[in-house]
Design goal:
Radius of gyration of chain B: 19 Å
Shape of chain A: globular
Low-confidence stretches of chain A: 1-15
Mean pLDDT of chain A: 94
Mean pLDDT of chain B: 97
Strand content of chain B: 5-15%
Largest sheet of chain A: 7 strands, mixed
Largest interface: A-B, 48 and 48 residues
CATH topology of chain B: Rossmann fold
Oligomer: heterodimer
Number of domains of chain A: 2
Number of strands of chain B: 7
Strand order of the largest sheet of chain B: 1-2-3-7-6
Radius of gyration of chain A: 20 Å
CATH architecture of the largest domain in chain A: 3-Layer(aba) Sandwich
Low-confidence stretches of chain B: none
CATH topology of the largest domain in chain A: Rossmann fold
Largest sheet of chain B: 5 strands, parallel
Number of helices of chain B: 11
Order of helices and strands of chain B: HHEHHHEHEEEHEHEHHH
CATH superfamily of the largest domain in chain A: Thiamin diphosphate (ThDP)-binding fold, Pyr/PP domains
Strand order of the largest sheet of chain A: 3-2-4-5-7-6-12
């Protein structure tokens, strides 16, 4: 894969542009179409709603308006108001109602406008839905999907209450699955799997990825929830990343290749259940590990990934594990400060050079 | 009014109340003896609410309960032996001993669970009600909760949600005058809890929750309305909690004169007298009592004899395995 002018990352306020060529997931010759991450999510919803009448969509403004980011746009026209349902601004009750419907056989797909608003629904997510199967000794199941955009870094000044990455809030609760797709291909296959899964699945869409494009096969497919995906095979260093950070990892890997460093990139497509084995196997192979997550550093996902490396590959390590994360700070408003809190390709490059030089 | 209730329904409600009372008296005593672990909230004094409401429901109608939930499951047809085993924390319980008193559930009876988070059930029941509406059947769904729960945000969200979606949700408030230890005059200012319904353009009524006939009749009209697409309703049942918030609660906060009169209203005694006045023989009512006593004795023996769950059970039933059909 040759570098192109498109693979540059802007370090300023403008949105960085990544080439779709950075991540190729569809084998040549496979019937496929290029589409955006947002279109891939919409297509998964459309196909699952067509396939199964128990699937319905609910959330604030998801009807005619199509949701805050337009993900559900056109679904209302196709499926009508009975299945694409606007709700009052009542996050806890939206999730609670989804749980009640799921308990009696429906497959709700809920949209909460920003993950930052999930704080209003934490009782229903973590203390109800996540625990009902266990508390009832397996008598109940809660097959819902909760879709939430998260993350920031687009230089859009969305500030402290619309920009967080909160995946570990949910991953800390046994009973929830937590998915973070990084590409259109993954988003579609994982969302279809999440809808068919009989457990509550938290589906975190990086809002910055909505416009990212990639090939998606024409044929129906699902991807396993709880398996890491090796996005790039390498031998010198392992980068473990999820969501948007996978793109920074891939871009860094491409740049490092020119320096003669062979990088393996592991995409943690689901942080819960965590596929420790794939992380461990890669760490044993390369002996050097860099962890990249947009969430704030302390008690973020990288801590758990580092533990997986320690447990599975300690004797093989040739350098201490290094991590690249969001700053331990609320997300600021002004571009000049906001820009400094996000992990960038440069940070990943530096981290890899650090472990290589150890 | 109560005389218009069919005699078989009236007798059935009597049996339900007696089974609840017996069960609760037994678990109270077993708790004191250390046989039942955890928190135990008994329903003694409030039996008429569960009995009167659930007498209007079909097997496929859904209910969701509270931390004080044994009565609701019994009224929905719960088996005392499987309930007792669950409260004992035994593997043979309804939920394998993983839920206990506060989380007991039996979806096959439409009982979606006791729930230890005050107000949470009001949100969940809307989803069950929506499903009935979506499927086009005439099912209804009932949430039970106390006066304290009507101060939670979730309750207000759920009432509004049910009203806007015109759901067959029925909100039953068991107003026993206390949110744990806090008397109602200290936690809400409205005269009647049913006034809350006005804000959501929903019918709201207040009934004597110690009169099982009154509870039955109020619920009947709400259920008929909901089944025919008329939307949600709110029923406030004014009742009395005879015992503490939970069994360890000595109720020092309750005035002495109130403590002396708690048992003046006894829904079971009153209903017995009404049934006698309608010509039911004392012998028939005594037989109902004896049957319940026997059932309970068997339930305790079953729970005592049942095995504890294996420690490995901590790691099962967390997730439903991913289906092959995926």
């Amino acid at each position: 894969m040759a570098a192109t002018e498109r693979d540059a990352v802007s370090l300023g306020g403008a949105a960085p542009v990544m080439s779709p060529d950075l991540i190729m997931q569809v084998a040549p010759g496979t019937p496929a179409r290029e589409m955006s991450y947002q279109e891939a999510i919409r297509e998964a919803l459309r196909e699952e709603m067509t396939r199964d009448a128990s699937v319905f969509v609910m959330g604030e403004d998801v009807g005619k308006h199509g949701g805050a980011f337009g993900v559900t746009r056109t679904l209302f026209d196709q499926f009508g108001g009975a299945r694409v349902r606007n709700t009052p601004i009542s996050e806890n009750t939206i999730v609670g109602a989804a749980t009640g419907a799921a308990l009696v056989g429906m497959r709700p797909v809920i949209e909460i406008m920003f993950v930052d608003f999930s704080g209003l629904a934490m009782d229903q997510i973590c203390t109800q839905a996540a625990k009902l199967r266990f508390m009832t000794g397996g008598q109940c199941q809660v097959p819902w999907v909760l879709r939430m955009p998260q993350g920031g870094g687009a230089g859009k000044s969305t500030a402290a209450q619309h920009s967080q990455s909160l995946e570990t809030w949910f991953a800390h609760i046994p009973g929830l699955k937590v998915v973070l797709p990084s590409t259109p291909y993954d988003a579609k296959g994982l969302l279809k799997a999440a809808i068919r899964d009989n457990n509550p699945v938290i589906f975190l869409e990086h809002k910055f990825l909505y416009s990212f494009r990639g090939l998606v096969p024409d044929q129906d497919y699902v991807l396993p929830i709880g398996k890491c995906d090796v996005k790039r095979v390498g031998t010198d260093v392992t980068i473990v990343a999820s969501g948007y950070m996978v793109w920074h990892a891939m871009l860094a890997a491409q740049m490092l290749e020119r320096e003669g460093v062979s990088v393996e990139v592991i995409d943690v497509r689901a942080i819960s259940p965590l596929d420790r084995e794939t992380i461990g196997a890669s760490a044993r192979k390369t002996g050097r590990v860099v962890l990249v997550a947009e969430a704030v550093r302390d008690y973020g996902p990288t801590g758990e990934w580092a533990m997986a490396v320690t447990e599975q590959a300690f004797d093989y390590l040739r350098a201490p594990v290094v991590r690249v994360t969001g700053r331990n700070s609320p997300v600021p408003f002004a571009n000049s400060i906001e820009d400094g809190v996000w992990p960038r390709t440069d940070d990943v490059l530096q981290a890899v050079r650090q472990v290589m030089a150890y | 009014m109560n005389n218009e209730i069919p005699i078989d329904v009236a007798l059935s409600m009597y049996g339900t109340m007696v089974r609840i009372r017996r069960f609760e008296q037994a678990v109270s005593e077993l708790y004191a003896r250390g046989k039942i672990p955890g928190f135990l909230h008994t329903y003694i004094g409030e039996e008429a609410v569960a009995a009167g409401v659930c007498a209007n429901l079909r097997l496929e109608d859904k209910i969701i309960s509270t931390h004080r939930g044994h009565g609701h499951l019994i009224a929905k047809g719960g088996r005392l032996d499987l309930m007792m085993a669950e409260l004992f924390g035994k593997a043979t319980g309804y939920n394998k001993g993983k839920g206990g008193s506060m989380h007991i559930a039996e979806p096959d009876l439409g009982m979606l669970g006791a729930n230890a988070i005050v107000g949470a059930g009001a949100a969940i029941i809307n989803g069950a009600a929506f499903t009935a509406q979506y499927l086009g059947n005439d099912g209804v769904a009932v949430a039970f909760f106390g006066d304290g729960a009507t101060n939670t945000g979730t309750f207000h969200e759920a009432m509004n949600f049910a009203a806007v979606w015109n759901l067959p949700s029925i909100f039953v408030c068991e107003n026993n005058g206390y949110a744990e230890s806090t008397p109602r005059r200290q936690h809400q200012k409205i005269q009647a809890v049913a006034q809350r319904a006005v804000a959501y353009d929903m019918p709201g009524v207040t009934v004597d929750g110690n009169n099982v006939g009154a509870v039955y009749l109020a619920t009947r009209s709400a259920v008929q309305r909901a089944r025919s697409g008329g939307g949600p309703a709110f029923i406030e049942c004014q009742t009395t909690r005879w015992r503490g918030h939970h069994e360890a609660d000595q109720q020092h906060y309750r005035p002495k004169e109130e403590m002396l009169t708690i048992e003046d209203r006894d829904a079971i005694r009153d209903w017995r007298n009404e049934l006698l006045a309608r010509g039911v023989s004392a012998a028939q009512l005594d037989e109902i009592e004896q049957t319940a006593a026997q059932e309970l004795e068997n339930a305790v023996a079953f729970a005592e004899a049942s095995p504890l769950p294996d420690p490995a059970q901590a790691y099962t039933d967390i997730f439903t395995p991913v289906s092959e059909a995926l």
